[in-house]
Amino acid sequence: MVNAQRFRARKVDLKRPLPVFRAADLEDLEDDDNRHVDAIETGVEKDEEAEHHLQAAISATHAAATGEAPSKQVYIPTPDASKVIDAYDELYLKNFSCPMSLIRSSETVEECCAPLYCMDDEDAEWLAAFNARRAKAGQPAMSEDQFELGMDQLETLTRDMVFLRPEDFPSAEYLASHAADRDRPFARATIDHVFEHWKQRRIVSSYKPV
Hints:
There is one protein chain. The chain contains 7 helices and no strands. The protein is mainly α. Helix 5 (144-157) crosses helix 7 (188-204). It is elongated.
């Protein structure tokens, strides 16, 4: 009597599609014992399946599916969430009341907190020379935040404009009267100073955004 387990070929159902596999898709064609064991879905990324705790749990599940008792109970460790947090009452106040509706905003954090324009080395050189002239005249210096705000508003206001020659640039007065960014104050004093610098940078970059 042969103790090896044999498999009966199933009848082909004409109404059910049959999967087609290549030889490279099958793990082992010679091992008949693996035919009755389905592949176990781990539910994690393929790159993370090599983690040793996960492999131990998969091996234990495979042993249970084949009728072999695992040597010991295997589990995937998780962080301990039973500890008491220090200063919990200070961080989570008890008088919090849930609002009737959630806060909705379509702006990003950068748009809410700071301008999107980031000055480069060329801007830094221009700003240093500009502040040096203002210092000689006894006038206050322009900060980097003010400079970036002015450049950002110029880029925002001219986003839909097409420039092909220097004469196509609108004046600072025109941009001030047609300011599209009304949620922030239009930095007219700053823009009057940085307008020529911004215009020159657009000309050098073939009229593309800075």
